[in-house]
Amino acid sequence: MEEIDSAQSSKSKVMTIAALAILTVVAGGGGWLVGQFLAPPPATEKAEAVAEVAPNATGAEGVPKIATEANGVVQLEPITTNLAYPSENWVRLEVALQFNGIPDVALAEQIHQDIAAYLKTVSLQQIQGPRGFQYLRDDIQERVDLRSDGRVTNVMFRTFVIQ
């Protein structure tokens, strides 16, 4: 009787191991199949898009820039100015403008001057913390909207440093 129990016990162990192996293969295959349906397509399309970037859209190392006039984006020159109070604090801001349609460089320069003039009226207390920064972003966006009559759809902050 002990021989029958040990034979059944080893047979049940083999069946358990076989069942686990089959379930593992099925689960792995199902995961692979779902991954094929949900995964993004290969990066070949992105590489072709990067190869078609405008010739003036490469950076110092030959890496393509995202913010180009061909994409409707004009990156403004950095703005460095002192704050209204305390006047010993300086702010440096780099902004890019996304145009709806063909970018207007003359309008971008006017907006650049408006932002620089506005930053000279801001105090450090007004722009401290996340809420202050959000107010600054909203104020600059509102000024850009007024100046551009809706031709600029987005103001993108590249850098913002207070010293």
Automatic annotation (TrEMBL):
InterPro entries: FliL. It is a single-pass membrane protein. It is found in: Cell inner membrane; Cell membrane. Belongs to the FliL family. One of its GO terms (cellular component) is bacterial-type flagellum basal body. GO terms for biological process: bacterial-type flagellum-dependent cell motility; chemotaxis. The chain crosses the membrane at residues 12-34. Keywords: Cell inner membrane, Cell membrane, Cell projection, Chemotaxis, Cilium, Flagellar rotation, Flagellum, Membrane, Transmembrane, Transmembrane helix. This is Flagellar protein FliL. Controls the rotational direction of flagella during chemotaxis. It holds the Pfam family FliL.
